[in-house]
Amino acid sequence: MLIIQDIMKKITLLSLLACLFFCPKNHAQNLVQVDAVAFLNQLSAPSTQLAEAHQRIYPVKGQGVNPQPFYQKWTSQLEVHVQAIQKLNASFYQQNPLGYAPTASTNLSPKANAAQEKEIHAASASLAQKMLSDPAFAQKIANMSESEQHAFIAKELANQGLKPAQGTPNMPSNAPAGMDRNWAEICTNVSQTLSDLTWMEAQEAIESRYENKHAAVQTWADEAIKKLPLIQQGEYGRDHDPAKVKVIQKEALVKHRELAQAMLSEMNPLLLSFRKQYQEKVSALNEAIKRVNFGQNYNFGIFYTQVLQAQGMMLMAQENLMKNEVTVLEKLAYWEDQLVHFGK
Q1: Which pTM does this prediction carry?
Q2: Is the pLDDT assigned to residue 182 strictly greater than 70?
Q3: Between residues 260 and 94, the one the model is more confident about
Q4: CB environment 65-98: b (16+ within 10 A), e (fewer)
Q5: CA separation (Å) from 236 to 231, 232, 246?
Q6: Strand 238-240 to strand 230-232: parallel, antiparallel, or no bridges (unpaired)?
Q7: What is the DSSP string of 196-229?
Q8: Bridge partner list, 153
């Protein structure tokens, strides 16, 4: 099956052959000005101590779980960035309903008039769409040599009444916008690596191990209570001594809390490693968009929406990291809260 990288390479080739399928180089295409790695570093590190985790998750005594106040400053800024990306994306599609920017006159085809440019643009877009929607067609092109690809696509355009443009061929100095970097491959790699959730397996293994340990503590407590002698409870009949039951229950909670702290000590470095893995996954794209100053004076050409969406994915992945950390802390802080409020 043809993979995404191959398809994007063929679309890039198609764009080059179409000659006029690009935006003016001086047309800036802005991204959101946020360094993804630096922004993640602004997020407070996961707790190392259960008491501190409890303070984050249960900020107000007696009012239950509410981690929002602790994380609000960071999450609010994340929301601002995500909404900014959504606005840029919406604005682009409002101006360009077909998903790509208008063509521009260039020195590649000095004789082409507006109508001819429109025809070339439409034919190029049609072929690009066909390559995405027809796997067999895309695979056919993928199996060709570069010279065969050029000849085949030129013929496809010619069948629609379009001849190759006359003039200077695309060189580094006059290449279509966005072709100075491999945006398609960089964005595809980020998308694929961020979608891979196998990193969660190590966390799930730790959680499973401690769930078994907590279950063992509960079994111990239940058995210990069953062994207590029954005493007369007035009109309610006979039952285990409530005072002795409480002693066992508290002892069990102490054991649960100890397990929670032990698990937190294991989870903390793992959660930090998830952040490091994230930084490694997004490094190529993050550095690339920083080098073009977030598109302030740069034209991504046909890759603009792909880069914009990849930037959004980088930020949403950070939200997932944060939510996962909070979920872990909630589970562990529960035992601290139970012990703090025991008997009250």
Answers
A1: 0.73
A2: yes
A3: 260
A4: eebeebbeebbeebeebbebbeebbeebeeeeee
A5: 11, 8, 19
A6: antiparallel
A7: --TTHHHHHHHHHHHHHHHHHHHHHHHHHHHTSP
A8: none
